[in-house]
Amino acid sequence: MKLLSNSKFTADYIIRMDDIVREGDPVLREVTQQVELPLQEADREALQCMMQFLKNSQNPELAAKYKLRPGVGLSANQIGLSKRMFVMLATDEKGRMVEQVWVNPKIISHSMAMVYLPESEGCLSVDRPVHGFVPRYESVKVKGYDASGKEIVVRYKGYHAIVIQHEIDHLDGIMFYDRINKENPFKLPQGVEIHSLYE
After folding, report:
1. Which residues partner with 85 through β-bridges?
2. Can you tell me which residues the record assigns to a coiled coil (predicted)?
3. 7 pLDDT band (50/70/90 cuts)?
4. In this structure, what CATH number is given to the domain that contains residue 154?
């Protein structure tokens, strides 16, 4: 007998900004649960729904219609599901769109060199402007599973590496501003090679 999911995030559900959990909600501070493999239908549909949100948010007409803020990444706990999975939709250096689903991701290696976004990072769960540099590894190698449950290992550099680290932080209950220097938001870590992504 098939158990019906009580999640509203079915494949045809349209995520709006009201569905995005905002900072202060305890779910954003929890370490998310490993996702059971093979993926349950409800998890697959939630991922599909999350990816559709990113596509809608990056489409000017649909973003205006549904009043969406543009996003390049969305983790499951940002829609209230404490599950270790997220989606990413971002262009690479050559302008190609990279669409990626990650289930139970883990960073298995990273560069010593670091980068940061000069304008700080943004987050769909944070409605206020946050100023300061967020140090990230310049490249990361990630191991996990895709939407079909197949094991994947991918290396990311630059902007994609930043997005991946931001989303994996979400899954660990960490907000991007936790990584900003508390005394001086524009102070960079000492003793490491670090530069602005857009230098």
Report:
1. 103
2. none
3. confident
4. 3.90.45.10
pLDDT above 90: residue 192: yes
Instruction: For residues 33 and 109, give the distance between their C-alpha atoms in angstroms, rounded to a whole number.
Output: 22
Q: Is residue 8 part of a domain?
A: no
Residue 1: inside a domain: no
For residue 109, give its domain range: 17-196
Active-site entry in 99, 151, 167, 183 = 167
In a domain, 36, yes or no: yes
pTM of the model: 0.94
160 assigned to a ligand binding site: no
**CA angle (107 as vertex; 104, 112 as ends), nearest 5:** 170
**Is 2 a residue whose pLDDT tops 60?**
no
Q: Is the pLDDT of residue 185 over 60?
A: yes
Q: Is 170 annotated for ligand binding? A: yes
Q: Among this protein's residues, is 167 annotated catalytic?
A: yes
Cα 22 to Cα 57: distance, rounded to the nearest angstrom: 17
49 annotated as belonging to a binding site for a ligand: no
